[in-house]
Fold this protein.
Amino acid sequence: MTGPDRRDALTDVAGLRVGHARVPGERALSGTTVVLAPEGGVVAAVDVRGGGPGTRETDALDPRNLVGRIDAVVLTGGSAYGLDAASGVMAWLEEQGRGVPVGGPGQVVPVVPAACLFDLGRGGEWRARPDAATGRAAIEDAARTGPGAPVAMGGVGAGTGAVVGGLKGGVGTASTVLAGSGVTVAALVVVNAVGSVLDPRTGVLYGRYFHEAETGAGDGTGAGPGPADPPSPEVHRAAGLRLAEAQKASGPPPLNTTLAVVATDADITRAQAQKLAGTAHDGIARAVRPVHLLSDGDTVFALATGAVPLPADNPLGLNDVLAAGADVVTQAIVKAVLASRSTAGPGGVFPSYRELYDID
């Protein structure tokens, strides 16, 4: 998708839809995000590099195993408890007759890969976490959207309680179209890491060192991920003091995890999709430091709709897709941080980057 219809979002990969749902309650700060594939499903793979992952059905995505295509991916808060959200997604898919056929008409088993992040207690209530109802609400939200719909960012869905290096984290998304082949590559990231997105020397987001400013469709966040002019030393010093105070008020950092879905309309194999999931982790490493720690569960899913063939005369054409996957992950992380708003409550004080640096 190019031109004015491009959303700079995961939904620029035609057929993909995104839905969010939040756990209800005043002391709840968690939720679930679902990526819904088009009818017939998509090729999928996964790469897990964090030392403390929480996942479901990821073994099914191994290229050596049976399942060739999937219908949805679940990203959820609530740590391992939140993986229950996938049950609600499975139930909805079964009602639609979508899944692996295992018998007569309507007899299917949906394969729903899922990964969770740690946000337990961030709203003040330990038991306020996603369940099957949250998952159903998120996939129903995705199903209601139209083709190429915009994707809400910031503290929504799985990013509701996300925190990164003491800053409020959240959901971000970005896309690009490769010159020549016309292949679209996009990402959706939930930023929730022990490491920091912020260069302590300058106050610039790490991810902004890697890209020229975008000139595509605006998203209202001012999140063009080009190198930014650093804030003045005075503003940076004051921001650091405020962040330190907020971190002290919120106690020691708990377990975390950054989750991502990188997608393309390129016609690639399951093994190639697994390579895409692996190289997309480079995009996290550019924007979050340190990354892939024992207290993170960093997980990247790769999806491919197969609508656009790679150039037959270039056996290394996949390289462009791999490079773009890492790039859009970095962009999505920057956009997630810039789209998020400060949150404070019984579970902690989590200031936004925009508030700390007085960005309008």
Summary: The mean pLDDT is 90.
